[in-house]
Predict the structure.
Amino acid sequence: MRFQIKGIKKEQYEKYLELLPDFKQEKAQKYATIVLTLSASIILGVFAINPTLSTIANLQKQIDDSNFVIQKLQQKISNLASLQQQYGTLQPDLQTVRDAIPTTIQIPIFLAQIQSIAKDSSLTLTSFQTLGVNASGQSGQRVSSFDFSMSADGDYQSILNFLDKVVNFQRVIAIKDIILSTKNNTLALTLKGTVFFKE
């Protein structure tokens, strides 16, 4: 849109000039100062204060996120401390659990323990045989086992004492078969079972 000044008469031009404020007057200077100050404030608000407010809001969000992370970490620390305390109370029993299901096969140790139990029970161990190893479960969490068969001679009370000690043995044993027979005025015990270990 263009204004053409050529077609405006001098009277109209002077009339338009009267509408403009006279900056020489003090009142006009005050209004101009107020208008310019407000304009500068708005420009500063848009270009300077707005990014600052945006940065403050972003920092506040980061602080809130950090506080959330700190709260979760403190909760984890509390849980770990509780688990450490529970582990401390269980620690005396861990060796019993390890003895019940050892992490290696330990056939010679098992044989020595059975011989010791038989001797303490006044039994004569006549044979001891281990069979193949059976594996089950996933890798890293496998519970394996081996079968065994043994024979011993002794009297009735000695056999009862032996069986009682085997049933209450520290290592986990599953008894599969117990056979009693007489042999030369003594009892013969044949015991078959499975011994477990964790790989």
Notes: The chain has a mean pLDDT of 80. Residues 9-96 form one domain. The helical segments are 10-19, 26-100, 107-120, 156-167.
